[in-house]
Amino acid sequence: MSKKQTLQELSEILDTYCVNCLLKKHFREEFGKRYAHSFCINQCTVGQKIKEVGEKLL
Known about the structure:
The protein is an all-alpha fold. It has helices spanning 3-18, 22-31, 33-42, 45-54. It holds the Pfam family zf-C2HCIx2C.
């Protein structure tokens, strides 16, 4: 998979699942931006998929 295709796939995932994510919005309001970001990276299944796809860029 080329770099351009990988970036496009990441963009599609973010646009589909993360733009209007209610969990991210809730955690950001209740616990702050750092907690919400940490949750997305470490516990959210979409965040794990993003990490998996992103590793292809390395």
